[in-house]
Amino acid sequence: MSDQAMLERAGRLKGEIVRLRRTIHQKPELGFDLYETAGLVAQTLAELGVETQTGVGKTGVVARLGQGRGPAIGIRADMDALPILEQTGVEYASKVPGKMHACGHDAHTAMLLGVAMLLKEAELPGEVRLLFQPSEEGFDDDGLSGAPRMIADGALDGLDAVIALHVDSKLEAGKIRVAPGVAQAAVDDFHLRIQGRGGHAAHPYAGLDPIWLATQVLQALYGIPSRRLNPLRSGVVTVGIVRAGSASNVIPAEAYIEGTLRSHDEKVRLQLREEVEKAASITRSLGGDYRLEFDIGYPPLANDATVAGWLQQVGVDLLGSEQVTDKDMASFGAEDFAYMTAKAPGAMFRLGVKPPAGEYGGLHEATFNLDEDALPVGAAMLAETALRFVRGELK
Fold first, then answer.
1. For residue 10, how many C-alpha atoms fall within 13 Å in the half-sphere facing its CB?
2. Fold of 5-185+302-390
3. What is the 3-state secondary structure (H, E, C) of 57-95?
4. Strands of 72-78's sheet, edge to edge?
5. Angle at CA 319, nearest 5°, toward 337 and 394?
6. In Å, how far from its chain's centre is CA 352?
7. Which CATH class is domain 191-296?
8. What are the phi and psi torsion angles at 315 (to 5°)?
9. Is the dihedral of CA 320, 323, 328, 331 positive or negative?
10. Range(s) of the chain covered by CATH 3.30.70.360
11. Among 203, 214, 261, 205, which residue's Cα sits nearest to residue 236?
């Protein structure tokens, strides 16, 4: 098979991949509640004659292609949507108010089904395992997302490598972005309750205004990245919620601050939590108090150098060197694919899906949409990389 053959075959499947993506897009589901999406995936795989296991990691689907006696590679696609009211105006827009595929997981799922179509009759002297994952965007009652749930159910057992893609709304459609090293950040959220003493707004000196305390804490929080971290080891502190009070003439007893911390290595990750604790403690020096809790989220995602090299090699062969970039790979976005790359050597590449300028918004926006011409490119990249791996053609 020539370098271009897989891309050409994927191009002929574009209509079917687009149909699947739009079907999923119209009926978005959240978290682990992916019964209709997982059902469509399982049904499509069954129609292809592919061995399929459902209920993995609660509502995940695992499919196996090949003989299973040689090297084994996994390909992951996440399936869940976001709690966003869609505002694209497209004819295939979400039919579920308040839910939307604003992060491209519908496209990820459709492209992985495209991989099944491309490889279902290929001679595979090893195993290609398709991992359709629930709940990348959310957590269950135990604080776990879809990737660790699938790992706990054995979805990655015996794999020698694992790969994935994510759509990139800032990169021209059909191009790919991949590089070794840090690709996504660790994420931890914090919840801070600041206690003062409430009272009448006309007599602030008689109480202790928690909103005033909160302003001191906010100043300290915003100073963490620029004044507390080594500038060569960056991190992000973002406050997303500040809440206090219910009337203009009442000093409340409590203020609430919630935010997120992003980092690319574990030392900075630990320091960020310590610095938030120090910022919160300002309240005590001023006579107040606080309660601080952290939600420990995903670890940083680092692309294995060898696996990232495979993706770069396949990208150049299929698309040409001008379509492959290693620039701006590191992001402060977070990805639970990091749990899978901790289980087996792995890497994620970004697939450019940038639509015509100004027409749609970016990831996690109510106006997000993508250029569907990129979908066959993603499917071909994943299929060709897996095929070469099980055939021992990647070094």
1. 29
2. Aminopeptidase (3.40.630)
3. CCCEEEEEEECCCCCEEEEEEECCCECCCCCCCCCCCCC
4. 51-56, 60-66, 127-133, 72-78, 161-172, 346-354, 176-177, 324-325
5. 60
6. 15
7. alpha beta
8. -60, -45
9. negative
10. 191-296
11. 261
pLDDT digits (tens, 9 = 90+) for 70-127: 999 999 999 999 999 999 999 999 999 999 999 999 999 999 999 999 999 999 999 9
Q: How far is the C-alpha of 363 from the C-alpha of 168, rounded, in Å? A: 8
- Whether the pTM exceeds 0.90: the reply is yes
Q: Give the residue range(s) of CATH 3.40.630.10 domains in the chain.
A: 5-185+302-390
Residues 6+ apart with CB under 8 A from 246: 252
Angle, CA of 261, 266 and 267, to the nearest 5°: 95
pLDDT digits (tens, 9 = 90+) for 268-285: 999 999 999 999 999 999
